[in-house]
Design a protein that fits this description.
three-stranded mixed sheet; 15 strands; about 475 residues; alpha+beta; about 40% helix; flat
Amino acid sequence: MEKKEKTEKKMEMFANICVMLLALCTRAATAGPLKVDDDQDGGGADAISHSLALVQRLEALLLQGNGSDVTLRVETPNADEVKLIPAHALVLSLQSPVFQELLLTRNGSTLTLTESADCAAVFDKFVRYLYCGDVSLRLNHAMPLHQLASKYQVGALQQGVTRYMTQNLARDSPSGHVAGWYEYAVQAGDVVLRDGCLQYLAWNLSSVMQSGEWVGLSSQLLMSLLQRSDLVLQSEMELFAALEAWIVHNRPDGLTAENALRAMRYAMMPPRELFRLQTQSAVLARYQESVRDLLYMSYQFHSASPVHMAKFFDVNCSLFVPRNYLAPLWGSSWVISNPTRDDRSTSFQTQLGPSGHDASKRVTWNVLFSPRWLPLSMRPMYTETGAMQPTRVEGGRPRIIITPATSSADFAGVSFQKTVLVLAQQQGRLVVKHVYNFHQSTEENGDFLAEADLYRRSSEYLLDGSLLLHVMVKPLYQNLIATKN
């Protein structure tokens, strides 16, 4: 019997759909552009488009409530305010399978919905999207609209809000929003949003640590960041100071604090800084027993040759892997004016390695930027006259090559990973847009600046016509780092 009633309701709803769409289309046809398209035979094919007028009619239908056959009663737990929205069952059913099921099983002309306060506040925007296919967004609207789109299975809106959120991670907000969006994305299972938030936090960590958002990070998000090698920050000391502030503010349980402190890379701190921490840090004094072994290994790392140390100790762990440090000893900023014009070069010095045994040794690096380099596999070898083609031709792509100015016996056992940070302007702020890792040339990545339109003056990759990069060299002791299969 219940199945029969559902079938009857579906047939009635379908009939209503036909009647309403016919009426709307008839009214919309009173105005609209006439488009002429070329068909395959070369003749002109006329096409009448009244889609804009149809959307306007649907919007008017929502605003005026004409022909409304259902009232959405939006309630919020523990709140007296109730929102009533006249609507049309056929529109809701066409846009949302969840609404379709709810409307088939409802009793009476009112459908009661229970939503959180944030979702209830934007519910009228959500319903308007179902009628008109567009919605105006603000930062504080994004998450509740995403929740509603997910709950009522409106896939297009959910994807659109995800795209909006990933494109507005850099936008200023009073208390920060990226960490909150990350936590929501984990709960909602939105992998794209989750990974986008985590990457933004990792690549712009220095600015995040200086904001009020830092101390509000959950312990789970904090650990996810501390375990990454691609964090962009001034130094490991800067990260320790921020972690200390987080622990003091949040007062986590002992296990959480110990795990966070053990994720620090103490070997990347100079010995003098380690001594200072041990004598001045109240947090380290409280939990020193839990990290004593890491401090001991770090002091050994700084006092002996890393190659010699590896003969006696197993040190294949993240403790000895540098992050993306912006301090001068690890690399240099590079501002390339008019980056499409011609080749540019620069040079800088870094320490040979993070170990105290190598810290006093310097390596000079030469860097070449080519705006239109063409890979050898894509380059014709000879012209018609037999002359060699130039290595830089129109239609090529940007490339950076980083090489040492001299060779040295000290390089034995050391592998140098080159990293280039590409900065971009987003919502009036400079953020790290890309991080490229390679051995010698960005050609190894294959996608270096592939999406950057450097010829467009308004490109987000250009600041006053200049490309902003930060080039760094990360020394890895080969026999200390586990080989990846």
